[in-house]
Amino acid sequence: METLTRTNKILFFSFLFLTSALLARSHEVDDESEFTYDEESEKGPSHWGEIHSEWSMCNSGKLQSPIDLLNERVEIVSHLGRLHRSYKPSNSTLLNRGHDMMLRWEGGAGHIKINGTQYQLNQAHWHSPSEHTINGRRFDLEVHLVHESNDGKTAVVGIMYKIGRADSFLSMIEDDLKALAHTKGVERNIGVIDPKQVKLGSRKYYRYIGSLTVPPCTQDVVWTIVRKVRTVTREQMKLIREAVHDESETNSRPVQAANKRSIRLYRPNDPKE
Q: At the top level of its lineage, which domain of life is listed (predicted)?
């Protein structure tokens, strides 16, 4: 009986180790210095899958992101339901990951629920220009709100922006972004931030199954892309890039093949919407 118990313990801890290792490999890398967005580089997007074996999905995956949300591919539906964001204010930090700025919420900042699964909000980061395109059009900026379920599944909410009026959320953290522009490898505590301040502006959204847009390019990510394109100032867009020390003007992965994936556009039945 004692031998059986000892064996069970070994199996249990081995399972925990393997599970944690797999989850670690499925997350976006926090140190982005090992790859680049330069198409001419051997570490550029077309070679990401060759840099590490656990990044192979970047080259071989058939459900990769971002994609072009082409009208001809989109099915308009009303049964998906509103995107309910049960967010709450939480202490947060800003981190320069090498190619982007990441705002990380600590201690739980609430969740969204999709198809009965609850996804906890962990972080937000920005890409310029946008990674997703609509009918071939690329916009000036895209924010990704990254969520994770208890069993390690990922759901990302994406919002795209064009040049126009200032974005109120970026205005809130502008001073912190400017402060990080003069530091390197520093995670800056920026106090309590309410993720509800990241405005959606529309109930309409695209939904499809894709991947992380940075290594390891893990698939089966549930993507929700807000249909409304919001606005930022040119100065806010530049600040996002200038706060990063990669000397690159862009940090967007090229559009990937849709491969006949289902792309739905949620549109409420309510005429007022």
A: Eukaryota
